[in-house]
Design brief:
The complex is a heterodimer of chains A (153) and B (280). Chain A has six helices and no strands. With 153 residues, chain A is mainly alpha-helical. Chain A has a single domain, classed as Arp2/3 complex 21 kDa subunit ARPC3 (Orthogonal Bundle), CATH 1.10.1760.20. Chain B is 37% helix and 28% strand. The chains are: A mainly alpha (153), B alpha+beta (280).
Amino acid sequence: MLCIIALVQEFGLSRLMLLEVFPDSLSVFLAFIAVTRGQKNSTSFGFAAGIIVGVISGNLGLNMLAKTVGGFLAGYFHSPDDSHATVKQKIRRFYGAVMIVGFAANAVMAFGDNPLGLPPAYRIVTLGFLESLLSLLLAGIANWLFLRKSFAD
Amino acid sequence: MRKLFTLFFKYNALLLFLLYCSVSLLFIKLQNDNTFLKLRTSGVELSAAVNEKLVNLTRLLNVHKENERLMRVNRDMLSKVINIETLVGDERNRRKILTDSTFNASGFTMARVVDRKFSERENMLVINAGWKNGIKKDMTVLVPEGLVGRVTVVSEHYAKVMPLIHTDFKVSVVSDSSNSMGILSWNGGSESLAQVEHIPLSSHIKLHERIVTSDFSTFSIRGIPVGRIVRIKPDKLFYSIDVRLGVDFSSLTQVLIAPLKIEPEKVAIMSDSTLIEQIP
C-alpha cells in the first residue's frame, strides 16, 4: 500500500502544482496510520516512505529524515483504543496530523534542499502552510471516499 | 537493569525515532559515496523511465492537437521555402543576365515575365514593368541570347509584349558575315524556327551565319542577336531561309527592355514623301 501511494505521489500528484507546491498523499497516509495505529507505526512507516521517495527522487537521506520526523510528530495525534474517542474527534485528529506531517516534512526539506533559492522563512511558513492546506484538501477527499468507515471501526 | 528496561519500553517510540534519524543523517553524510551514487542513478533511471511512459501516454491522447500544430509548422515552412527558392531563382537569372560578358546590360530595364500565353486566341508575354518603370510602347524586349519581342501595351506596373514568335511580328535583320539584309518573321510551327524573307538570290549568304537586328528597324536597336541560319532554300527570286532562334521562349523568366529607339523623322520620311520637299 505504501509503495503504491508513494508511486502515485511521485508520478501523479506531484504534477498538480500550485505555487511550487503540491498535495502530499504520503502525509495523509502517515496521518491515518498515526491516528489509528500509534506513534511507533507512523514513525516506521514514515521512515519506509522516506526510503521509497528518496530512491525515486535521488535525495535519499533527506527524504528519510523528513518523513520520519513527520511520522513521529503525527504520532502525538494517536487516539488510543481505550480513549473512546468519537469518529468526529478522530477525524479532527486526523486532519491535525495531516497538517503537522506536511508542515514538518516541508520544514526539514527546506534546510536540506533549496533548488529555487527561496528564503527559508518563506519556504517553511508560506509554502509549508500551503502544502499542508493542499494535503488537508486531499485528506478531506480521502476521508469522504473511504476513510470514514475505518475511523468508525 | 529493570529500570533500564522500563525506561526503554516507556520511550521506545522516541528511541525508534532517534534511531531512524541517526540512519537518515548517516545516509545524508554518505550521500556522495559510490553505493549511494549508484542508488541515486538507479532511482533517476526508474523515475525517468516511468515519466517517459506517462509523457508518451499524454502525447498519445493529444496526438490530434500535435498533428494540427505540426501541419501549421509545415505549412509555414513550406511557404518560406517556396518564397526563398523563388527569390534565389530570380536572383540567379538576374545575375546571369547582368554578368553576361558578351552583353552590356547597363541602361536597360530589367523585368520578370509574369505571364505567357501561347494559344490560338492569344500569343503574348506580360512583364512586371510598366510606365512607372519607364516602359513605353514599341520598346525592344531582349535577353542576352537574343531578341524577345516588342512592347505593345503598357499599364502602370505591367506591359504586354508581342513576342518574336507572333505572326504579326516583323523585324529588319542582317547577317553578320555577308551583310545580307532581310525581314524576319514567324509563320507558325516550331517556336525555335523563324523565317527570313527578301534576301535575293544574288546574296552570298551562307549556312550557320549569325542573324542580328539591323539599323533599318524602326523600333529595335541594331546588333541584337536573333539566331543562326539553319536552312537556305533558293526560291524564284529570293532565298527561303530558316533561322534557329537564340531565345528559348518556353523558359523566359527575366528580360531586358531597351530604351526606345523610335526615330520619328525616319518614320515620317518613310511614310510621307511630302516631307522631303520640306527639307531645304
